Amino acid sequence: MSNRAVLEVIALDVEDAVAAQAGGADRLELVSDMAADGLTPTRETFAAIRAAVDIPLRVMLRAADGFCAGSAEEVDRLAAQARALRAEGAEEFVLGFLTPDGRPDLAAIEAVAGELGGCRWTFHRAIDRAADRDQLRKALADLPGLDTYLTAGAAEGVEEGLPVLVAEAARCGEPGYAAELLVGGGLTLAHVPVLREAGITAFHIGGAARSSGWTHPVSAAAVESWRTALA
């Protein structure tokens, strides 16, 4: 079995997507509004990116900054967006909601994930703000389609979360630990050797894929440098 790492890159638009694919990205996470840490893109943006590239796309389902799903009406609107994106051809997604006290918001998660028809999806970095990561994993373990956790191991980022990431990688296959670890959030190339040694094979970059932060588009050369380092 190949041990080649998966490289996922955040894309905001067609320009980002084309550059990321040219640099060797394996998958894209599609978002809008990085000032709010990534919200749901429009159906039109998804369609334009899908037409421009041929690598897998995971589409963010998130209506506002933070990790609270909001009111029942807001959850309904997000579920409607999920249906519209599915109708447009989206097949992979990213979502995840917490209650104010840091528990998984199962009602909101199930309402949105229930619109995905079993499509594969990532529980995003809300896990890094959870009151109890282990409890969250076990509560979500049987949800259809959940195959990945995007996590830095800590709210502060990978540098602080490395011990948690290594420990969770060692539990792969235990109840609640079947989903893949996709590491992102302050990730640098300096972290990669430790993570690879722990058996982690999926990595997520956003700002690191750009020449000078979020005000610049994705750089194919920057992505290529990561692809080379992860080969």
Task: Note down, in words, how this protein is organized.
This protein is an alpha/beta fold and about 230 residues long. The mean pLDDT is about 95. The chain has helices at about 15-25, 45-50, 70-90, 105-115, 135-140, 160-170, 190-195, 220-230, and strands spanning about 5-10, 25-30, 55-60, 90-95, 120-125, 145-150, 180-185, 200-205. Strands 7-6-5-4-3-2-1-8 form an eight-stranded parallel beta sheet, with helices on one face. About 35% of the residues lie in helices and about 15% in strands. Helix 1 (about 15-25) packs parallel to helix 8 (about 220-230) and helix 3 packs parallel to helix 4 (about 105-115).
Care to give the gist of this entry?
By secondary structure, this protein is α/β, with parallel strands linked by helices. The chain contains 8 helices and 8 strands; from the N terminus they run E-H-E-H-E-H-E-H-E-H-E-H-E-H-E-H. Helices cover 35% and strands 16% of the residues.
